[in-house]
Design brief:
One of its GO terms (biological process) is mitochondrial respiratory chain complex assembly. This protein is mainly alpha-helical. The protein has helices spanning 5-10, 14-26, 35-58, 67-80. It has one domain.
């Protein structure tokens, strides 16, 4: 778990963000070597933005689920996700 709980509370993709920064640092800021990390971060942001918009449309507050509930939300999504 990231060290800063408040940052994680406001940014559900903090872990993915930190991993992309770490990749950049490790690879001398060569963006080409970190494309997988960027894709993962962008997928994370897209997922949570959809969750936030859905909760806002349904009138559920807070729009972003609590940190403790996020794993179960992701797990539920993975169960219903269509396979390619």
């Amino acid at each position: 778990m990231p060290k800063n709980y408040e940052a994680e509370k406001n940014n559900p993709c903090l872990k993915e963000q930190e991993l992309s920064y770490k990749c950049l640092s490790k690879n001398n800021f060569d963006h080409g070597k970190c494309e997988l990390y960027y894709a993962n971060y962008n997928n994370c942001k897209e997922f949570w933005n959809k969750i936030r918009a859905d909760r806002r449309a349904k009138g559920i507050v807070p729009y972003l689920p609590e940190v403790a509930d996020r794993e179960s939300i992701k797990a539920e999504f993975m169960k219903t996700k269509p396979t390619l």
